[in-house]
From TrEMBL:
The keyword Heme does not apply. It holds the Pfam family PID. This is Low density lipoprotein receptor adapter protein 1. It comes from Merops nubicus. Residues 16-130 form the PID domain. The lineage of its organism: Eukaryota, Metazoa, Chordata, Craniata, Vertebrata. Gene3D superfamilies: Pleckstrin-homology domain (PH domain)/Phosphotyrosine-binding domain (PTB) (2.30.29.30). PANTHER family: PHOSPHOTYROSINE INTERACTION DOMAIN-CONTAINING FAMILY MEMBER, PID DOMAIN-CONTAINING PROTEIN. It comes from the Eukaryota. InterPro entries: Adapter_Engulfment-Domain, PH-like_dom_sf, PTB/PI_dom. The keyword Lipoprotein applies. Keywords: Lipoprotein, Receptor.
Length: 139
């Protein structure tokens, strides 16, 4: 349960805000439209803990606690809550290996959680910028 003023709280975000979601997968194109391969509810998806911080997004398997992926905030170019599938949160990031832009999509249990993840990533972008500006202020 998020408090009403959660968006203004910076302390928890510095340590990383965690959200438990189902990982729908990654593709270079759409994942959840009627024409694409993944349909929400059609199969069992990996349950992950997505942690957002000013450093970026990390994914950990919710069952095994194994680290799945760690994406630098500087590689993320876009994030959103899907307009039609409003429980879906997605972000676009540049692959460290290939340099290609990849879309990663996640299913949240509620629309409000998908929106909270999106707003938390936006707040992380702002905090990362603030930290960068502070570090480079004297140069």
């Amino acid at each position: 349960e998020l408090p009403e003023t959660w968006a203004d709280m910076q302390e928890p975000l510095l340590e990383g805000m965690c959200f438990t979601l189902k990982y729908l997968g990654m593709t270079l194109r759409c994942l959840v439209s009627p024409h694409c391969q993944a349909r929400v509810g059609a199969r069992k998806f990996q349950k992950v803990i997505l942690t957002v911080s000013p450093r970026g997004i990390s994914l950990q398997d919710a069952d095994t606690k194994e680290m799945v992926e760690n994406i630098s905030i500087y590689r993320i170019s876009y994030c959103t809550t899907d307009k039609l599938q409003n429980k879906v949160f997605a972000y676009v990031a540049q692959s460290q290996e290939s340099g290609a832009l990849e879309c990663h999509a996640f299913l949240s249990p509620k629309k409000k959680i998908a929106q909270a993840v999106t707003l938390t990533v936006a707040q992380a972008f702002q905090m990362a910028l603030d930290l960068w500006e502070t570090a480079h202020a004297g140069r």
